Amino acid sequence: MAPSHVLKCCQKVLAWVPVAFIALVVAWSYYAYVVELCVFTISSTAEKVVYLVVFHLSFVMFVWSYGKTIFTSPATPSNEFCLSKADKEQYEKEERPESQQEILRRAAKDLPIYTTTASRAIRYCDRCQLIKPDRCHHCSACDVCVLKMDHHCPWVNNCVGFSNYKFFLLFLMYSLLYCLFVAATVLQYFIKFWTNELPDTHAKFHVLFLFFVAAMFFISILSLFSYHCWLVGKNRSTIETFRAPTFRNGPDKNGFSLGCSKNLREVFGDEKKYWLLPIFTSLGDGCNFPTRLVIMDPEQLGVSSQNEPAKSSVANQSFPTRPLSESQNRLLSSDCQWVETGPEEENGKESDAKWNSEMKHCLEEELLKCLFLNHILVSHVLLFRKLPVHEEGRVF
């Protein structure tokens, strides 16, 4: 017990090494830019003031978002996803996977779950002993199930998921702007030191090295930030990109995509004035998400007038904070699951049959109208051909 405990403590300490490295680099860059460049190198007072004001704005936003990413605890599933004491004891006693799945299906019947494993089984975490919500995964480094887990980032020593994904994106954006501003403003003095236009002072090393470090981090962060911007537009996580979530109709990487604008609002919230601030404004509770398989994706809708009602319902779709009803939770059902039919499902089937009947009746009416207009057109053409024609081509 003691060696394993010591090993875990050492792992926790070593996990902070990348964060400490970033903190030291940022602290040194602050000293190099403010003291060595602005105080000792730049002679123009106006240039100093402008550089220092913009630098400190980008620095504060960068440090703020970085701190929020590090110290925001990963969101975990609520208690409703945990098995009851009786179900847990029965699950542990059962040895057959089929019997265990039956227990999980009963427990997940009223939960807002639309995804399964690749083998159509309920996603269950034996480590945390709970049914995994959609987009939730177990992090071996944090040893918890994380809601909408994207990845575990060693540079922040934390899981990036539902609770801090917005902070992580802002951290990438502000670090990118920070490096870009530092590299752009240092460049002219880098060239002057390199070509010996400025005398060799203790500031030379800091200015030269500051430019290389800022340019290197800018290039590396740019690719990562671009990739996550693409993920936000598609409403995917890094895990879902490499392993698509499995719905009733099979794996679908775009299963949670609601259109670019709604995907953006899902992460940054409805109020645009808070988008650039590292304040939590993401929509939903992290346990359930709208899906284009239950609520049609506006990007997948056709241009015909028959799809207009569906499009308007998608535009007004709110992000639920409570479990959806049984009649909406159909993506877990299959031919061998939940054979019983409740009254809500019967009502849903009756309404679907009524809607199909009305649509069929409308299509038949439209077809009859087209045939009638076609008949009138043909009759007029035949009548026109029988009329006498004048030499100049006019009809008498």
Derived from helix and strand composition plus strand pairing, the structural class reads mainly alpha
Tertiary shape: elongated
Instruction: Report the average pLDDT across residues.
Output: 81
**N to C succession of SSEs:** HHHHHEEEEEEHHHEEHHH
Radius of gyration: 31 Å
Q: How many helical elements?
A: 11
Indicate the proportion of strand residues. Answer: 5-15%
Our measurement of the CA-to-CA distance between the termini, rounded to an integer number of angstroms, reads 111 Å
What does the model show?
By secondary structure, this protein is mainly alpha-helical. Helix 2 packs across helix 7, helix 3 (45-71) packs antiparallel against helix 6 (165-194) and helix 6 (165-194) runs antiparallel to helix 7 (202-234). The longest helix has 44 residues, at 343-386. Among the domains are: 15-73 and 162-291; 79-155, no CATH class. The termini are far apart. The strands form four sheets. A two-stranded antiparallel sheet has the order 1-2. The chain has eleven helices and eight strands.
Topology:
Elements (H helix, E strand, L loop, with lengths): L1 H14 L1 H23 L5 H27 L13 H9 L3 H12 L15 E2 L4 E2 L5 E3 L4 E3 L4 E3 L4 E3 L4 H30 L7 H33 L3 H5 L3 E2 L2 E2 L8 H9 L39 H8 L27 H44 L10
Antiparallel strand pairs: 1-2, 3-4, 5-6, 7-8
In short:
By secondary structure, this protein is mainly alpha-helical.
